[in-house]
């Protein structure tokens, strides 16, 4: 499971996440799978619903249950079985690459940060040593950057 030894031919691993429900019972949820062809994945777990589990191979195991501990389970299975499993919808792997996702989050953060300093023209105190940029200019740049990023995530390299 360290990535140094591949799965046996025709095998892959179902990835499960477990977090106890309100009563402390383990609730396992299928996130997805990894294979030799797809040896890693990033699963979103922030939207998982507590108490909504799925079929899993860990129920018969005598795992210690600690009410506040999350667990990850990997079940090595035939690839045919993996193809038939349905992961929890909210754990879907992002279809946006991590650079694009980072860039979009950075844009949102910058715009929100810059907007938090917005003042009306009547509220401005003249200060000859400072330059002011209209919020409409920042918004226009933000929208243009978003559009260009959507059209070509690598536009900035040209």
UniProtKB/TrEMBL annotation:
GO terms for cellular component: cytosol; nucleus. One of its GO terms (biological process) is protein import into nucleus. Residues 97-157 form the Hikeshi-like C-terminal domain. It comes from the Eukaryota. Keywords: Cytoplasm, Nucleus, Protein transport, Transport. InterPro entries: Hikeshi-like_C, Hikeshi-like_N, OPI10. Residues 1-91 form the Hikeshi-like N-terminal domain. GO terms for molecular function: Hsp70 protein binding; nuclear import signal receptor activity. The keyword Transport applies. It is found in: Cytoplasm; Cytoplasm, Cytosol; Nucleus. PANTHER family: HIKESHI FAMILY MEMBER, PROTEIN HIKESHI. Acts as a specific nuclear import carrier for HSP70 proteins following heat-shock stress: acts by mediating the nucleoporin-dependent translocation of ATP-bound HSP70 proteins into the nucleus. HSP70 proteins import is required to protect cells from heat shock damages. Does not translocate ADP-bound HSP70 proteins into the nucleus. Belongs to the OPI10 family. Forms an asymmetric homodimer; required for binding and nuclear import of HSP70 proteins. Interacts with ATP-bound HSP70 proteins. This is Protein Hikeshi. The lineage of its organism: Eukaryota, Metazoa, Chordata, Craniata, Vertebrata. The gene is HIKESHI.
């Amino acid at each position: 499971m360290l990535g140094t030894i591949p799965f046996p031919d025709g095998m892959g691993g179902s990835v499960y996440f477990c977090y106890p429900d309100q009563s402390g019972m383990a609730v396992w949820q299928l996130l997805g799978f990894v294979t030799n062809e797809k040896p890693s994945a990033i699963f979103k777990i922030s939207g998982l619903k507590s108490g909504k589990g799925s079929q899993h191979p860990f129920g018969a195991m005598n795992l210690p249950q600690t009410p506040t501990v999350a667990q990850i389970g990997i079940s090595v299975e035939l690839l045919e079985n993996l193809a038939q499993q349905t992961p929890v919808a909210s754990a879907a792997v992002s279809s946006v690459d991590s650079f694009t996702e980072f860039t979009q989050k950075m844009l949102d953060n910058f715009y929100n940060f810059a907007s938090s300093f917005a003042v009306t023209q009547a509220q401005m105190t003249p200060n000859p040593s400072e330059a002011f940029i209209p919020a409409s200019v920042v918004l226009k740049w933000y929208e243009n950057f978003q559009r260009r990023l959507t059209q070509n995530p690598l536009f900035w390299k040209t």
